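# step 3/5: fold
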Amino acid sequence: MSITPGFKEKKKFILLALRRDSDTSGTDYIAAGATPKAILTTGLSVKPLETEQVSRDLDDGRNGGQPVIHTSEMISITAPFELAGSGTASSPAAWSSLVQLSGKDENTDVATEVSHNRIQNASEELDGTIYFYWEGMYHILLAGKASISYAGKINERLMGTAEIKGVYGGTLEGTPPEPDFSEFSDPLPMSNTNTTFTLDGQALNLYEYELNGNEDVQYDEGTERKQIFINDWNEEGKWIIETPTLSTFDPFAIQLSGVIIPFELTHGAIEGQVVAQKSTGVQILTVSPAEVKGKQAWDISYRVIRGNDSQLVTR
């Protein structure tokens, strides 16, 4: 066998399986029989092995580099994905399992939508096993959890980016199954036709949108187990909007008052395509001048205030 097989960089994808009730937390759920889902991404990358290096600092009368011990073995994956509905209002989007790694649930109580809401009790959060396939091998991530950011610009795709951390599960050599991405819908560009945005109940002309979950994903190891957990979160983001009249919307008065206000971004033209993100209470942090094609605009940064955690909805 050649030692240089010519593996292709672009031949990569991920398979994800969430923990089932019958699974032992932090183990390989795929090896234990869970059916994984292929996740369609764009710009996928991996750090196959990350460690903390403990220098031994030996007093052996010799100069030069000290040997190290590798500890806290982790793997991290960056998985950008397109936000689009499932095609059916009552069915979860194909990327739902990825969102659940960030401490969000999957709620189908409302017949005409699927919502993802912040889980407040850590024992109810799900973790996942991910097989990152790169031609010729799998890199295995165990006990995975994620921090997810959402962003979009006019005439571009609305995207999510999952920064996933997990316990290092080793590597496997072999040929993967053929990935099935058939449940993923084609995305729509953010546009006048497809997208609306309201802030404090007022429709505004949005150019750019960001919301970062800022989930603080931590590695923890004791004598009994290794685990990944979400310590806290602090959702923040920004909007760039065309400057309205002050009588329509005065961001400076709202900023100075410290009042919390609702927002909602709705993206999608027909039932089954819609993706919405909203919060009942955000606080404006800064308002800065911006320019969009010669027009005045406001670059507004904001924070989602606790008790008003953002909700992601498909319908």
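# step 4/5: annotate
The two ends are 52 Å apart (CA to CA).
# step 5/5: archive (pending)
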